[in-house]
Amino acid sequence: xxxxxxxxxxxxxxxxxxxxxxxxxxxxxxxxxxxxxxxxxxxxxxxxxxxxxxxxxxxxxxxxxxxxxxxxxxxxxxxxxxxxxxxxxxxxxxxxxxxxxxxxxxxxxxxxxxxxxxxxx
Length: 121
Prior knowledge:
Elements: E1 5-14, H1 17-27, E2 31-35, E3 41-46, E4 49-55, E5 68-72, H2 75-85, E6 88-95, E7 100-106, E8 112-118
Parallel strand pairs: 1-4, 5-8
Antiparallel strand pairs: 1-5, 2-3, 3-4, 6-7, 7-8
């Protein structure tokens, strides 16, 4: 059985996590959940849209930082499929504090794609 991709989230790097969360919540109407200690990630969702706001500086990327987050219904199957196809695995599957079981790949231009399955229900 092949895994099904179920959604995609852009990743926006922000300079102030609290300011970004407040803006997306109060001005744009998103439901925001702040992650990390200290806070470094916000999931901002509204209707069928999920945007990830990550504390950092552009253009550098930290370990396990990604350009796009793709939701999937079976992360283990997709990981196996991509390993078998010879995809360049950026980091192995791990359970993130953001509520997703993720792994990452690199494309030929160095773009980092994360594939993740929600760990809840």
